[in-house]
Amino acid sequence: MSKMSELAAVLKEFRQCGEKIVGVADALTTGATELRRCSEVLNSISDSLVELFSSTDEKAPEAIPEKTEATAAEIHLELLDVRKLLSVKSRAGYTAEIKQLLRKYGVEKLSDMRPEDYAALVAEAEVIGNA
Fold first, then answer.
1. How confident is the model over 32-48, as pLDDT tens digits?
2. Among 1, 60, 105, 115, which one is most buried in terms of CB atoms within 10 A?
3. Contact call for residues 81 and 73 (beta carbons, < 8 A)
4. In sequence order, what are the residues at sequence separation of 6 or more whose Cβ sits closer than 8 angstroms to the Cβ of residue 95?
5. Cβ proximity of 95 and 109 under 8 Å
């Protein structure tokens, strides 16, 4: 193997390593965002419980509004959630369909997609392989 071929192979490996590092960084960022959001929810629940049980009044607690079903547009999807779904579909043999779906949104890879399009993408991806 010539020196240029060896150099090209090494550079290709460096590029692949760099892409994997970027993927890991994206996953860590998403994980930190999820933890922050969970923390905010737990703080809110804690505040509500303190307020509810520290009251000296003997009045009845206010009715807690029932949770309604959220539509796909209302669900806050993260990149990691979408990536998980697409990877499951891809491993199930639907890689070509996933690539075609991404192209439909004008992107070649998920990281180039606009977050506001995640819900629509997920809705379309969920039916792949279920028909």
1. 888 888 788 888 888 78
2. 105
3. no
4. none
5. no
CB contact at 8 A, 52 and 61: yes
Q: Cα(31)–Cα(18) distance, rounded to whole angstroms?
A: 20
d(CA 58, CA 4): 83
User: Residue 77: left (phi > 0), alpha (psi -120 to 50), or beta?
Assistant: beta
Query: Where residue 70 falls among pLDDT bands split at 50, 70, 90?
Result: very low
What span, in angstroms and rounded, lies between the C-alpha atoms of 112 and 106? 9
Sign of CA dihedral 63, 69, 70, 76: positive
Q: Using CA atoms, how far apart are residues 128 and 131, in angstroms rounded to an integer?
A: 7
Give pLDDT, residue 100: 92
The burial of 79, by beta-carbon neighbours within 10 Å (0-12 exposed, 13-18 middle, 19 or more buried), is given as: middle
The mean per-residue pLDDT over the stretch 70-80 comes to: 59
